[in-house]
Amino acid sequence: MSSLAALNPNADRIGGSNVALQMNIGAAKSLQGVLASNLGPNGTIKMLVSGAGDIKLTKDGNVLLHQMQIQHPTASLIARTATAQDDITGDGTTSNVLFTGELLKQAERYVLDGLHPRIIVEGMEMAKDETVKFLSEFHVPLNEKNPDELRKVLVAAAQTSLRTKVRRALADHLTNVVVDAVLAVRNGNDIDLHMVEIMEIKTKSDLDTKLVKGLVLDHGARHPGAARHTDNAFILTLNVSLEYEKTEVNSGFFYSSAEERQKMVAAERSFTDDRVRKIIALKNAVCTGDKSNYGFIVINQKGIDPISLDMLHKAGIVGIRRAKRRNMERLALAVGGYAVNSVEDLDPQCLGFAASVYEHSMGDDKYTFIETASEIAKSCTILIRGPNNHTVTQIKEAVRDGLRAVRNCFVDGSVVPGAGAFEVAAYLNLLRFKETVKGRVQLGVQAFADALLVIPKTLAANSGLDVQDALLELIDEAKSAAGGGPKEAVGLDLTTGKPLCAFEALIFDNLSVKKQFLHLGSIIATKLLLVDEVMRAGRPQGKDRHGEDAEGPED
């Protein structure tokens, strides 16, 4: 009788004779098999069908792992670890799953030959440390002193990421959009991507997606006579109620005559009208002289009632109400000025300025475009267009990954050669490192090195190339280029199957993505290798600690 059976005869247990290890390895290999065909620009697309019959087409590993119904505990653990990488760096989910599965697959050979998993784990941890050290030297620093060269590298990094998400022509179109968006909101190395508004409009073609230097609101002016297009407009950002409001507590009023009631109504109305008059006074103060033909736009987070809208319209002011709270900060960063919480504090310094404000109608939907010609604007909008919901969703997911790829370049201060160049260079480095390691731990180092090659292997397979021929030629070329540094690193040309210089081909990956890929993949694989028993934990649902139903005994 096992120890667990002695503690609980009814316990569920998987263990003995490497059964638990085989279960974990099998789950990792199965998950690897599902996602392998998605890797790279030539990866295939998966169709996800929900219980309600909704269909989603995607090749984004993060989306797949979130929406697939994974029930196996080991596969679920690997999926959560891989999606954590996407939360941190925005990319590398599929690579993480492939690397984790390959580490376990390589270790399985040695375990079946009788090698203890602890020895393999020790070798893998040594190999991981050596590879991370190698990565810290195997990168190309950004040259921020040369704007043209900097932009070329940023475009290449964004392009490398986007081509794995969407078709080539669309990826090339989106590349400049995401690079310009990040450069617009960049403040040194502090890049807040929340200042990039992503607006979706289901119309036209996916290639009509564009960057708007300013903000796009998903509603228009409420007054029927409001101007639909205004050039050179002052922008007042408000968080002040311009409508009649009820008292916060239940209250009642008693009038002795109809005249008293009329006076009460007039007093309540004058409270709101006084606020509107102060806005009109500010408009009259700034729109004078050579600026008398300038427009004046009020964008309010709270409501504006019809009477107030009419007063503003008669004064030549366009009122837009119920703006989303998340757009208030973006608006101030895009056009300047600051949000005002009280009309008592109105001052020309609080005003922003937009080169153009216009309304675009599409059926029953209205959109307000607030565009600025200022180069100091620190907020912008990516306007995503597409003929259907599937296309719009796919572009939105790709744009988010592209934005984070560009941001990672600034955060890391460098990029890593792509197209499998880093993995092959790290593989050769580990072979040299293995010669300095004594004993059976060498096998763990070898397993780690072989697992790294899963990336170029999968890229070749997904491109319809002969995997062995392409890999052998790539390794031979990398050996002759060894010692040349990252700018001489050799990757795989997915069109011809021949080796290419990743630096000259402008194929770059993010340093942080590779680092997380190495850390998370090796950690989860080594932990799973040391599992020798799987048992069901926790109390059974519906039972208390005395074995009775949680609702209590029946009467």
From TrEMBL:
GO molecular function terms noted in the UniProt entry: ATP binding; ATP hydrolysis activity; ATP-dependent protein folding chaperone; unfolded protein binding
One Pfam family hit: Cpn60_TCP1
Any one cellular-component term (Gene Ontology): cytoplasm
Primary localisation category: cytoplasm
UniProt cross-references to SUPFAM superfamilies, sorted A to Z: GroEL apical domain-like (SSF52029), GroEL equatorial domain-like (SSF48592), GroEL-intermediate domain like (SSF54849)
Protein's UniProt keywords contain Nucleotide-binding: yes
Compartments where found: Cytoplasm
Keywords associated with the record: ATP-binding, Chaperone, Cytoplasm, Mitochondrion, Nucleotide-binding
Family classification: Belongs to the TCP-1 chaperonin family.
Name recorded for this polypeptide: T-complex protein 1 subunit zeta
Gene source species: Plasmodiophora brassicae (Clubroot disease agent)
